[in-house]
Design goal:
Elements lengths: L1 H8 L3 E2 L5 E2 L3 H108 L1
Antiparallel strand pairs: 1-2
Keywords: Cell projection, Coiled coil
InterPro entries: FT20
Protein name: IFT20 protein
Length: 133
């Protein structure tokens, strides 16, 4: 006990295996415990970084997928607009064609009425010619 006190005064200590140490066994034990806690903390930090990294990667993938879907939607909307414009142009062409055919029908109707009148006049002339004989 006196030897330990003398050693302690000189800053030397005996551990549980009676080895001579510069550091107090309790301080050495606390230092080792702190080292283990630091190691565990670092492991947790590394694990956290991995989780955050994979989360960032996932968010990036989702952002790319969302951008891709947005572009598809814009493309589909533009396609629909162009189809609608084509249909509108087609409809205008058909309306013009209908108007043209109606005018043609009116001309034929007038021509037909005129021909019917001429035929009636000619028949009347023929009848008069025959009765004169």
């Amino acid at each position: 006990e006196m030897a330990q006190a003398a050693l302690g005064a000189a800053g030397l200590h005996l551990d549980e295996l009676n080895k001579l140490r510069v550091l107090d066994p309790e301080a050495a034990q606390q230092t080792a415990q702190l080292r283990e806690e630091c190691r565990a903390f670092l492991d947790k930090i590394v694990e956290f970084q991995k989780i955050v990294g994979s989360l960032i990667e996932l968010v990036d993938q989702l952002a790319k997928a969302a951008e891709s879907e947005k572009m598809k939607a814009i493309g589909a909307r533009n396609l629909l607009k162009s189809i609608a414009k084509q249909r509108e142009a087609q409809e205008q062409q058909l309306q013009a064609l209908i108007a043209e055919k109606k005018m043609q029908l009116e001309r034929y109707r007038v021509e037909y009425e005129t021909l019917c009148k001429i035929e009636a006049d000619q028949n009347e002339f023929i009848d008069q010619f025959i009765f004169q004989k």
